Amino acid sequence: MLKKIRQTILDNALIEQGSRVVVGLSGGADSTALVQALNELAPELGFEVFCAHYNHGIRAEGAAHDETFVHDFCAKMGIPLMIERADVPAYASEKGLSVETAARLMRYDFLERAMKHFDARRIAVAHHMDDNAESVLMHLIRGSGLKGLTGMSYVRGNIIRPMLNVRRSEIENFLSERRISYCTDETNLVPEGSRNIIRLEVLPLIKKLNPAGVEAISGCAELIRQDEDFLAEQAEAALASLKTKKGYDREAFSRLPFPIKSRAVRIALLHSGVPADIERVHVEKIMELLTKQSGAAVDVPHARVRLSFGDIIFENKDKTVDNSNNFGFSTVFSLRDDERGSLETPFGSFKAQLISLDEERCYGGNNAYLDYDRLEFPLIVRTRREGDRFFPANSTGSRKLKDYFISKKLDAAARDSIPLVISGREIAFVPGFGIGENFKITENTRKILLIEYAE
Predict the structure, then answer these.
(1) Global pTM exceeds 0.85
(2) pLDDT at 301
(3) Please, what is the Cα angle at 279 between 276 and 281, to 5 degrees?
(4) pLDDT tens readout for residues 127-136
(5) How would DSSP label each residue in 391-430?
């Protein structure tokens, strides 16, 4: 086993000479063996070993026992150790996650902090070949696509898996030969839950059909990984070409070939920061959404995907900003005696000044040239309200502001963030869109008020 781990480290450049590695040590057989093996290989390969233990707060007495074991084990080995305790069930409930998903997220977040604490470059975890086979089977049973059937990799970011080419039986023999004790989580011995049933009942049956069944599954996963990597690269490139200001080009997205489209959906969700595993049913719901009308939306774990005119937009619900308090924002735009003024709002800044009739004008969506004598002071700057109407300059009449925004294909989420300059009861200026008909410059205009807006 030691030779396999050594070769895996060298073949995959898992640990650089002269660097530090933090091992996630639970106290179980796998992580205990990994610490022992790396500690034995460290002098030869020229790296330092550190350990990090995360007490999930799930098994009260058992967790305390594991923590004590880890502390004593590292003290005996002379390995620096970082320990942290947390209440995973409470976090899972707060975030709407399964306990398993919450534990994984919190554990890896802790390991990242431990890596920085010890000034290490890598985090080593103790997944082995049997774990890999279990994961592949579990994803297969859940109806996963190719991505879920690729199994685990030796390297994922800062995470390394030096024992991925090692069988569980080899780990047990390794510890037995060295007379090293370890902790046993009794819940892992009960055939309840998907992973435990696969480990305790399904894999033993597969081994009866093929004694090298675990190796066969892992080998198959590696072949699938090569195909998946190629398709994922194609999907990533396709998605990048569809990027718009708000999301992705909906029509072009819908025309992608199915293998690329489904992967593009997963990648877009990943880019939006969705933390939970996305299942096939969620991907199918999003692809079906592409056939709907603008305004349609679907919710998947921790994300909302919606259509806005020509765009499909992926939003992380955990990071969505609540703009409800912005609705109805209002403040007075007071000009000074010299008819100059400025105003800072939550949505941008305004500057106003009187200019002469013959002064050069730079027209643009964020500049408003208004007939000063038609304005009713003080001007009010606010966001839209129910019933607002707008009469765009040079148009045939007024219309509901909401309908105007829709005609301009302004995304619904952005409509409440557009500041409006109000004169009396009329909208004089909508930054980015234009001025009101009743305030435009005419041959009778004597004074011009220039209002400049900057986001």
Answers:
(1) no
(2) 83
(3) 135
(4) 999 999 999 9
(5) -BTTSSS-EEHHHHHHHTT--GGGGGG--EEEETTEEEEE
